[in-house]
Design goal:
GO terms for molecular function: RNA binding; structural constituent of ribosome. With 214 residues, the chain is an all-alpha fold. It is built from seven helices and no strands. It is elongated, with a radius of gyration of 34 Å.
């Protein structure tokens, strides 16, 4: 039976309940720098083991990137970038290798922030990492420009030198600077007076010691 007198049984509400909920918008998939890794690649811990050539295919699938986590894929990506710029097979700590490892981390942070733009902690880590990489590349640029060019080309980095720091000169800033200079000068005078007094005291003690010996 239909009770039209009750508010919850009104025809409008009954019709509204029949409508389906609007479908939630699916988030657009963000491309990752790990997408180019082949699923058949082995994890970093098992890639160079000779026994992997004789194990079963099921074991290889378990130990491959097909079932690996994001962290394990990142290890393989770091190794690939390091192989592009390292000076020798035993080079594990040069500036080029450090830049390659840092680049893989920064790209992972960039992808994370595209999905979670309000994550301020990781945004701060990203900015700090970018500043550190810029300084390392600037050092490479000064000491070995050829290595710097190769590193940027192999890792796909577009280097932009830091802009010189400029400050707008205002009357308040000039007054504050003059006051700071004056305070510094007065402090230096006080330190010089203290050093002079201490030197004279040492000379007096040394003179008194010589007179006692005589």
């Amino acid at each position: 039976s239909f009770c039209s007198s009750h508010p919850a049984c009104s025809p409008v509400l009954q019709a509204a309940r029949g409508y389906a909920r609007p479908a939630a918008k699916k988030k657009k998939d963000i491309p990752s720098h790990l997408d180019d890794l082949s699923p058949t690649l082995l994890k970093k811990e098992y890639a160079n083991l000779p026994i992997m050539n004789s194990v079963d295919d099921v074991v290889k699938r378990v130990l491959s990137l097909e079932m690996a986590s994001q962290r394990e894929k990142l290890k393989v990506k770091k190794q690939q970038l390091v192989e592009k710029v390292r000076r020798s097979p035993s080079d594990n700590g040069s500036f080029e290798v450090q830049v390659a490892i840092l680049t893989a981390r920064l790209r992972t942070l960039e992808e994370h922030l595209q999905k979670h733009p309000k994550d301020k902690s990781n945004r701060r880590l990203l900015l700090m990492g970018l500043d550190r990489r810029r300084k390392m590349l600037g050092y490479l640029r000064r000491i070995n420009y050829g290595t710097f060019e190769k590193t940027c080309r192999e890792l796909g980095i577009q280097y932009s030198p830091p802009q010189p720091y400029t400050r707008r000169v205002t009357k308040r800033w000039l007054v504050k600077k003059a006051l700071c200079i004056k305070v510094f000068q007065e402090k230096q005078k006080l330190k010089a007076a203290v050093r002079l007094r201490q030197r004279r005291e040492r000379q007096a003690r040394a003179r008194a010691a010589r007179e006692q010996q005589e």
